[in-house]
Amino acid sequence: MSTFDPDRLLPDVQEIVCRAGELIQRNYARPKTIRKKAENDLVTETDVAVEEFLKKHLAALLPQSVFLAEESASGQALRDGTWIVDPLDGTTNFAHGLPFVATSVALWDQGEPVLGVVNLPLLGEVFTAVLGGGTCCNGESVHVSDTTELSQSLVATGFPYDIQTFLPEILRNLELFLPRTRGVRRPGAAALDLAYVACGRYDGFWESALHPWDTAAGILLVTEAGGRVSQYSGASYTPGDRGVVASNGHVHREMCALLSGS
Questions:
Q1: What are the distances in angstroms from CA 8 to CA 121, 141, 180, 216?
Q2: Dihedral angle sign, alpha carbons of residues 229, 208, 160, 211
């Protein structure tokens, strides 16, 4: 049994995440120190500062909790009472002066995310969800779209950092989706993409090779807004699985059929 109440935690978590977002806002226009974790995987001093801020304040809020956070992850498995944190999703955007960045925080318990906050600090929107409580954007309830045909849908995707390994799959999927939809978008921040599915701006989203911190909060936003999340095959999705597809539910089966080749 959980020893905490996600509903009671949410206001404090939202405040902490938004305060962390002020660091991103202040550093956005300043010169940045950038290093590479991999060829196309960047990290800035802001990523590290935001993660340290979140870990400090979330730990104080829930002392018995543990962390799975992007800049300090060491391969640990998900367990009850885990904060799953992406301090700055969209670091490449941030480094190049694009505002499509997000901070994603989820609380994992009993085998699923029970609380999620995705803050878009440069766009002025914060998305929140608690298991069983619906999804909100800036305090107002939001829902997935009611589009029923993939041909009428706007969808989004992302490209893994290991572009050479995934390039054939990426090109194949774009070739399938571009002529069958109204368009495919690629902002470069999965947490933002999932939030946009939750509020109905996108009808669907897919991507491969995402980490738990990329999706844990976002999948809760989508499901609590009335949408559906799965693996490409349609099987249930756990953060860290190879591929994720999220949709308004109506176009989910057709998206999965294209992605799985069935």
A1: 23, 18, 43, 20
A2: positive
Which residues are within 8 A (CB) of 89 and not within 5 positions of it... i.e. 6 or more apart? Answer: 101, 102, 103, 104, 189, 190, 191, 192, 213, 214
**Burial of 107 (C-beta count, 10 Å sphere; 0-12/13-18/19+):** buried
Across 121-217, where does the E strand assignment appear? 125-130, 135-137, 140-142, 154-157, 183-185, 204-208
Compute CA 1 distance to the chain's CA centroid, rounded to the nearest angstrom. 26
> DSSP string covering 53-117, please?
HHHHHHHHHSTT-EEEEGGG--SPPP-TTEEEEEEEETHHHHHTT----EEEEEEEETTEEEEEE
State the Rg of the chain over Cα.
Answer: 17
List the structure tokens of 253: 């089966």
Domains detected in the chain: 6-142 (3.30.540.10), 150-260 (3.40.190.80)
Residue 262 vs residues 52, 84, 154, 240: alpha-carbon distances, Å: 44, 33, 22, 23
pLDDT in tens, the chain (262 residues): 467 899 999 999 999 999 999 999 999 988 667 666 555 556 789 999 999 999 999 999 999 899 999 888 666 678 999 999 999 999 999 999 999 999 999 999 999 999 999 999 999 999 999 999 999 999 999 999 999 999 999 999 999 988 999 999 999 999 999 999 999 999 999 999 999 999 999 999 999 999 999 999 999 999 999 999 999 999 999 999 999 999 999 999 999 999 998 6
